[in-house]
Amino acid sequence: MKSHLTSRCLLAACVVLLFAGQALAQSPQSSGQDDDLVRLVTWMSGSFSSEEQAANDSDFFDIRLHVVRIWPELSSGVWLYVEQASASSLDKPYRQRVYFVHRLSEELFESKVFSLNDPLRFAGEWRNPEPLKNLSPDSLIIREGCSIVLRMRGTEAFVGNTVGKECSSDLRGASYAVSEVAITESEMVSWDRGFDSEGGQVWGATKGGYIFRKLQQK
Fold it and tell me: If we measure between CA atoms, which residue out of 44, 54, 42, 82 comes closest to residue 182?
């Protein structure tokens, strides 16, 4: 009788260890999932609008912003397709980019910025179940010096900017561009400006960044 009890106890212990091992293998920590990176790209992803800000301040326009994940099979970071358009011309976005978001250190992340050849052919691609599925990273054009370095502010926000004058721009006589961003669960504040070689601002909002509220998914 005693030997039977011992065998049953050993069997029960083995079952417990087996399930514990499976649970551990499936946990984010053991699978190598970066919870902070997941939070960052989750907050960045979705559809956003500056309609509320534009209604309260005529210096700002009603802009729509769409950010969707692409190429989920690729590792080492997260790829995002970004499309930005005026609410009055949604079929003609004025900015289309691809971001590669990855961790730099314990508190820092980088969002590398890429442009597309003939971007308007991809207008509305954010609506597709598999956006840009026929493209690959080697078909993109990296915008050197335009990466955004983001710092984690606890669990409440990520804030960041471009570095110095390294992001070149020739739009409206500019010499370089500067971008600042703050990301929370419900909104993104983005302030993009262009400056000439003398440091004078030649494009972009002057009062502050655009406030993009995240829209509820229908």
Answer: 44
Hey, is 38 helix, strand or coil?
helix
pLDDT at 27: 33
The whole-chain average pLDDT of the chain stands at: 87
**Is residue 65 within 8 Å of residue 51, measured between CB atoms?**
no
DSSP string for 71-94: -TT--SSEEEEEEEEETT-TTS-S
pLDDT 10s digits, 82-134: 999 999 999 999 999 999 999 999 999 999 999 999 999 999 999 999 999 99
Identity of residue 152: M
Cα distances from 86 to residues 62, 157, 179, 216, in angstroms, run: 6, 26, 19, 19
- How far is the C-alpha of 5 from the C-alpha of 91, rounded, in Å? 72
Query: What CA–CA distance (Å, rounded) separates 4 from 188?
Result: 64
The domain defined by 34-214 folds into Lipocalin (2.40.128)
The residue extents of the domains of the chain are 1-29, 34-214
pTM: 0.83
